[in-house]
Amino acid sequence: MTLRHDPFTDGLGEQTGPTHWPSLLPDETRPAWAELRDWVEQLVDRFALETRVIPPCWYRHNTLVEALSALRDHERICFAPNASPAGAVDWFRALREVEQRMIQACARTQCSVNEHRPDPARPWSTGQGPWQAFVEADATASSGSLTKASPTTERPGRFVYPSTGNRYRTRRSRPRRAASHVPRTQHQHRRRQ
Description:
The protein is mainly alpha-helical. Helix content is 44%, strand content 4%. The protein has a three-stranded antiparallel sheet, with no helix packed on it.
């Protein structure tokens, strides 16, 4: 609990839900960008984050914008006046996880202090014909839910996606063996010499 005036909490403002960038209206984008930029610059200064984590061109990479925005929103909740006492530790865990994700994203672009490189283009596209055929088959096979496999064709504990026939296992698909209560004889414990 903060007993003195904390300038950090002044910037928290009214607690709202997380920022969903694709659904921001045009008049909401400028203040959202300004607020996020201020927060990111404070974050970099507070934790001395390197360029390999947050490059100067972070705002040009959607992965970094979404990750930083989520981290900022999470920090707001973790440090809210009514937050759990474990909120700070929870936020540091989130920082560690998001930091690793941002390092991976920056490794793909190799941006530096002096140079911005765009995100790589997606190497695949969803073909309209196969996609439509899949959706139609899935819609006609069932309501799109998973069904239990037939015991005559599949082992117990396996399930099948109805439209594709792909299988997946449940966590424990085989029954556990019962422990043997037969006492061992002395010669079963001896090693061969």
